[in-house]
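Contributing new records

If you add data, match the layout below exactly. Sequence lines come first and carry their own label; structure lines follow with theirs. Keep one chain per record. Anything else will be rejected by the validation script.
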Amino acid sequence: MRVFVNGEPRELPEGASVAEVVASVTAAGAGVAAALNDEVVGRSAWEATTLRDADRLEVLTAVQGG
């Protein structure tokens, strides 16, 4: 299936979860948020939330700076 991750198309296997995609985007253990089709997905729901064809997933990572 084809989904859009941070605006870029990606081919993923059927049943891929938000958690799997987040792990492929960043190794950060904290400061990460995910939004699926413009709705925030709580971290506790990442494993259970599966993606469908044409979904849009945004993975955001907090950055420190001065």
